[in-house]
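Thread: "does anyone have the structure for this chain?"

Original post by V.I.:
We have the sequence but no experimental structure in hand. Need at least a predicted one for the grant figures.
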Amino acid sequence: MDELRIPFLTIVTPLFNQRKYLHRTIESVLSQEVEDLDYVIMDGGSTDEAVEVLRSFGDRISWKFESDEGTEAAINKKFLASEGEIVVWLNSDDVYITLEL
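Reply from O.Q.:
Generated one for you, tokens below.
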């Protein structure tokens, strides 16, 4: 029987019409050196071509496109469904920096 994979880190990015910043945000997450990363972008119905940016990352990210009740609702929905040991969010116009130790 295969062992069930539980991600170490889940990052949730709530998104609504932030195409301008989205590529930079996603790249900042993907540049982190985390082996077991579950990265999900919760798009609340963007109308600014953000979907094209999401599609450009292929299977390196996962995303959901559905109407919601705003940022908090999107974050809470994924937090409740997450199985990561650590669950955090990163807004769609923010970035993580990579530190070299």
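V.I.: this helps a lot. The mean pLDDT is 87.
O.Q.: and The longest strand covers residues 9-15.
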